[in-house]
From TrEMBL:
Keywords: Coiled coil. InterPro entries: GOLIM4. This is GOLI4 protein. Residues 5-60, 90-117 form a coiled coil. The gene is Golim4_0. It comes from Lanius ludovicianus.
Length: 192
């Protein structure tokens, strides 16, 4: 009985020791489990927070994407409008350029025509001037000849005038002599 009692006592002590060991292991596991639960809770909170931030980021991204798409569409529309305006302006400038080019060609043709006409006119004027110069030289020569002849005639006329004047003076003297002679003859009574 004592042996059985001791044996049972030993078994109880072993069972208590084992129970104590299991209890410690359970407490250790409970502590570890508590740590795991707390870590899991923190992870869940962190995950929830990350999900919230991800959702907000996704919403912000969608808003940004929408705004960017609207801005891109607006910029695309503005670019198309600017391109249309520039294209119209380019057409207008091209037409103006073509008009100016045509006017330039017309002016060049007109300039060439006027240049040719000017050259012809210059040649005609040169010929006329040469002809007039020749006529003038000829006329000057003729006038010089005429002046020379007139001077000669003037000399002859002066000479003739002097001769006529001398003859006139002689005639007047003779007339005076005849008058005096006539008066003298009239005074003579025998001749009356």
């Amino acid at each position: 009985g004592v042996f059985l009692y001791n044996h049972l006592q030993q078994k109880v002590r072993n069972a208590e020791a084992l129970a104590q060991k299991y209890k410690q292991q359970q407490e250790a596991l409970s502590a570890q489990l508590q740590v795991v639960y707390e870590h899991r809770s923190r992870l869940e909170r962190s995950l929830q927070k990350e999900r919230g931030e991800h959702k907000k980021t996704k919403e912000d991204f969608l808003v940004y994407k929408l705004e960017a798409q609207e801005a891109l569409n607006k910029e695309k529309q503005d670019s198309m409008n600017r391109y249309g305006a520039l294209s119209s302006q380019h057409k207008i400038l091209k037409n103006q350029h073509d008009d100016v080019k045509k006017q330039l060609l017309d002016l060049q043709l007109q300039h060439n025509s006027l240049k040719l006409e000017h050259r012809k006119s210059l040649e005609t004027h040169s010929q006329k001037f040469a002809q007039l110069q020749q006529e003038k030289d000829s006329e000057v020569t003729n006038l010089q000849d005429t002046v020379f002849k007139l001077r000669e005639e003037s000399k002859l006329l002066r000479k003739a005038h002097q001769e006529v004047h001398s003859q006139l003076l002689n005639a007047q003297a003779q007339m005076e002599e005849f008058r005096q002679l006539k008066e003298a003859l009239q005074k003579m009574p025998g001749l009356r």
